[in-house]
Every structure is written in C-alpha cells, then in structure tokens.
Amino acid sequence: MTNQSKATPAAASEEYEREPVPASAQKGWTSFLGMYAGEHAAGTEFVIGPLFLTAGVSAFDLLIGLLLGNFMAVLSWRYLTAELAVKYRTTLYFHLEKISGRNLVIVYNLANGILFCFLAGSMITVSATAVGIPFNMDMPKLTDTMPNGITWVVIVVGLGVVISLIAAKGYNTVSKAANWMSPVIVLGFVAAGIVAANQLGVSSFSDFWNIWGEGTEPFPGQIKYTFWHVAIWSWFCNAAVHIGMSDLTVFRFAKKASSGWTTAAGMYVGHYMAWIAACLLYAVYLRAPETQAILASGEAPSVAPGPLAYNALGIFGVIVVILAGWTTANPTIYRAGLAFQAIMPKVSTFWVTILAGALATIAGLFPAFAMKLLDFVAVYGFILAPVGAIIVFEHFFAKNWGIQTFYAEKSGIGFNIAVFVAWVFSVGLFYFISVQKGVFLSFLTLPAWLLCGFLYLFISKLTQKKGL
Fold it and tell me: What predicted TM-score, i.e. pTM, was given to this entire model?
C-alpha cells in the first residue's frame, strides 16, 4: 500500500492537496496551539454561551457538563484524528477519494464544503454585529432569518471579502493570523467575564453558581437542556472535524500525533471559559428593563454579540468580536476551499477558497445560521461525522475483516457502494428516529457513527473483489 499520488498542477503548491505532506513542511505543536485557541475562543462563542441560557440550563448542568463534553472532544482529536493524520498525511478529501472513489467523494466534498460555508457565514454574522454598532444598525433578533437592511448587507459583504482573502492565502497565513489574534481574543473573553460578573454583583462562588442556579424554563422556541444535552452537544458540536476526520487536513502538517493535545486550548479556553463568559454577558443583558419587557411579551430577545461585548468592554469589546469572527471563519473557509478543490483539482486553491468565501458571505447575510447555531451545529456534525467512521474503521479493522484498504484507488472504481450505503443508511435511519421520536439529534451522532463504520466493513466484505 502506498500513500503517494502524482500531484496535479494545482496540487504542486505548498498545500499538498493530493500528496502527503513532506517532512520539510511539518510543524511543531505551537503552530496548532494558536490556531485552535483562536478558532474556538471565537465569534461563535459569543452566540453559543447566551444560547445555553435561552435553553434554561442549571449551574451543574452547564459547568460540569461542559467539563466532561470538552474532555471527550479532546480525546477524540488526540487519539483518532491526529493519530491517523500523522500516519497518512493527506487531506480528508484525498484520503476519502482513495476509499470511496472519485464520483462519490464529489458528493461528500460538496456537502462538506457547503456546510462549512454556512458555518463560516454564521461567524461573519457575529462580526457584523460588532461592526454595525457605530452605525446604529438594527441587530438581528433570535427569530430573524432574513437581512434587516442595507447597512447589514454592506457590512457583511465587506467583512466577507477581507476574511476570504486571508483564507485564500493558505494554511501558513491562516495559522499566523490565528496566532496573532488569539491572545487578544482570549484576553477579551476573560475581561468580559470579569466585568459581567461585577455587573451581576458576584462576590463569591455561590453568587456565581446562582446565576444559573437550578435552571429556568427555556425561552420561546427553545428546548430545555439537561446535563446530558450539554455534555453530548459540547462533545459533538465539532463532530465533523474530529470523529468526522475533517481535521486530518490540519493535523497532516503535525510532526507528532501528540499535537492533538493542543485542541485542549480551544476546548477549555474557548468552549469552556469563553462560553461561560458569554453566558455572563447575556445574564447582564437579561436583567435590563427593556429585555424583561421583551420576555414578558412572550418573545425571545436578541443574542447579538456586538452589543453584549460593547456593553462590557466598550470599543475593545467591539474589536474582540470582530477578530473572533475572523479567526474562526478563516480556517473554516480554508477547509471549505480544500473540499471544493478536491472537486475541481485543476483550479488553484486560491480561487476555490475565494468561491468558498463568497458562499460564506452570502450565508452570513441570513442571521438564522447564527441565531439557530446550536441546532445547525448539531445537524452539521450529525451529517458529516459518520463518514469519518469509514476511515477509522478501515484503518483499525480492515485486516481483521479481510477487506482491502483504499479499495477504490486499487480497483479503479469511481463509486464505492459500501461507503454510500453505510453513510446514507446510518444518517437517514437516525435522523428519522430523531424526527419521529423527538430525540435530541446530538444523542444520535455516536450511534450513527458506529453503525456507519460497521455497515461499511460488512458491505465491503460482501462486495469487494478479491486478489487486488
């Protein structure tokens, strides 16, 4: 078995889209530390933190649930994603092409790239709420779906252009931007949390705990989150990139698999500290008389990050929100660009990333992606994660099951039926269960992932030709 493949002209760049990353291009753990801290202590955190409050979480459910869920996410990155990334050193898209065939991987890459663009669009939305403050722009409400004015459109488009150009410069530029911006963002979250705690009159741990207390009823249109909702959602909110193997694309540059531990910087600085800090900001906002009037009328108030941060930190808060959106949107658009590049290998990475940025900007015009971020992230991970199980199960179990690895590459087929049936059946079955039985979708991500892996092995055993 070989991982080498002749690169296309577009792949002969330093991005190594269709060949393993050579030793000369590999990077130490510090390159990933800043990127993960910046990407996960970022714009979406300003939305996700408040959304936990709208779901009526209790103190125990939030603080301990996040502790467990984020730990499981770090383990997934370290012992699955990073391990396989340093062994094969190829992008997810090229790796999957060798298993599933060119024709089938186009379908996956298209879905992956589009979903990444929607996610990046929600981050552009977040930054736009900060840029709009000096212009007295109307902020999107929790129930808004459409653009609310020309000012909103102009700001989102301007931000999208800048973010897309940075992402199109490639991995090195994305990593450098994250390393420069992430300390400022982390400082902003810490400062925002301290200021908000003071505004809430917190002088002891019991005061801090009582901000959430035993929880409340969820806001209109939201569901009640328990301990397991918080823990499982926080584990699988990034399911597409860890157990879904999308971050093979990032960790293929790592010298050692131990670089996977750097994701803890994102999980505990971003998905723990930053979410809680954003919760505190929103708790301050909820005590305002005008917010209480909105709630009394039976409506859900806005969760726009810009005004929340401005209320706590002034202009510095605005800057933090803008930078936070950039550092998350940049690597997300970069990943989307690589997905599109796998579909169009003769087009340069620069231009496919610009295409991804344009789609993300269009998505950013619609506030629904940010305002329904908890739901969208759950769906996004649920759809894409099972494909990662195919890569994981093939790596660990192919020999025991007697199936051929990288079957599409070695047999010359363009469409591996085992991959298609395993993915579509597992996603379709558990999504049906979620809709019909009202089961929280994140609860079904792991069952769908496991079923997809086992189905792939079983169907491959039945369909693969011997002697390759």
Answer: 0.83
